[in-house]
Recover the amino acids of this structure.
């Protein structure tokens, strides 16, 4: 059984994952409008992944006798300045999510909720991968600079990059 405190913290994370999905969907629209097919597909996939992260938490809360909450969401930005700035925003957001997961792990340990602690390890590992992937992408973009031809190649390149897979199978 989840404590009230643990349940509230998990519901907060459900909201963060849902907002992550919305942020990446806005990024998909931004890059699709710029004609960057590979980048937009990457963002659509990332958005789907975040929804899976949200659902995994959602089901866990209900499974443990809590009630998963569907909250309102903050509207994400629609403009990002440039593709480079967009990926910088993505990286910063993933660092924020990692911090939020760390806070959850801390609460689970404080409350001696070892089931939730164990459940959260999947997210800890996932955040390491997502941060690493975002860093790799940023390194590539920094190499390209403002070169249009480079951006075209990058758009093709990113199609090969698989989005870090969530636990749920992608259809
Ligand atoms: Fe996530
Ligand atoms: Fe993420």
């Amino acid at each position: 059984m989840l404590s009230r405190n643990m349940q509230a913290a998990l519901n907060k994370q459900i909201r963060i994952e849902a907002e992550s999905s919305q942020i990446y969907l806005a990024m998909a629209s931004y890059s699709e409008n710029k004609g960057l097919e590979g980048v937009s597909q990457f963002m659509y996939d990332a958005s789907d992944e975040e929804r899976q992260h949200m659902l995994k938490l959602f089901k866990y809360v209900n499974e443990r006798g809590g009630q998963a909450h569907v909250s309102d969401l903050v509207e994400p930005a629609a403009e990002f300045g440039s593709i480079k700035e967009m990926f910088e925003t993505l990286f910063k957001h993933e660092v924020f999510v990692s911090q939020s997961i760390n806070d959850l792990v801390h609460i689970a340990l404080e409350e001696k909720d070892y089931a939730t602690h164990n459940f959260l390890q999947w997210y800890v590992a996932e955040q390491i991968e997502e941060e690493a992937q975002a860093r790799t992408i940023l390194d590539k973009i920094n190499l390209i600079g403002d070169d249009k031809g480079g951006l075209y190649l990058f758009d093709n390149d990113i199609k090969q990059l698989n989005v870090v897979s969530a636990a749920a199978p992608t259809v």
